[in-house]
Specification:
With about 170 residues, the protein is mainly alpha-helical. It has 7 helices and 2 strands, in the order αααααααββ. α2 crosses α3.
């Protein structure tokens, strides 16, 4: 079946005249007459307008005459799924739990070995801070009676991050 015959089949299926079809597709009546008679082949624009005007028509059928003309209707089947709500634990069942009150998740052996390393690292950092620090004598003192107020304080950290505090 040629494309011109498929256009005629669409008009028959929807029981509309060529004039009504032309109006619905938004083309001239003469275009429909020329296409259905086989004088002209439909343009891509025409086929797109047909498809947009009749969205239930299958593209593959309209262009290649493959498959059904109308898209099969898909039934939506709703499944009822029962959701079981778990009871919320009460305060006392949480307290009776073995791990209640434990903040440390690291075993004690690892804590002892890490403690000495942490002390060593913190003392290194303190030395570094002392080396990089400057005496307050070099900084101008802010007078208590000054009308200037702090607007923003920005802290820059060694890892490249920063925090800003605004008043």
């Amino acid at each position: 079946m040629e494309i011109n015959e498929r256009i005629s089949v669409i008009m028959e299926h929807y029981n509309i005249s060529p004039s009504e079809f032309a109006e619905k597709v938004d083309v001239q009546r003469s275009s429909i007459s020329h296409i259905t008679s086989g004088r002209n082949k439909p343009s891509l624009e025409f086929i797109t307008k047909v498809k947009n005007s009749f969205p239930d028509i299958e593209w593959d059928w309209l262009i290649n005459n493959n498959g059904p003309m109308i898209k099969p209707k898909v039934e939506i089947i709703e499944e009822k799924v029962e959701v079981k709500k778990l009871p919320l634990p009460d305060l006392f069942s949480i307290i009776e739990d073995e791990s209640f009150g434990r903040n440390n998740l690291i075993p004690e052996k690892e804590q002892k070995t890490n403690a000495s390393e942490t002390n060593k690292m913190s003392s290194d950092k303190e030395e570094k801070k002392i080396i990089n620090s400057q005496p307050l004598e070099n900084f101008p003192m802010v007078h208590e009676n000054s009308s200037k107020k702090v607007k923003r304080v920005i802290l820059f950290f060694e890892d490249g991050t920063f925090e800003a505090f605004e008043n």
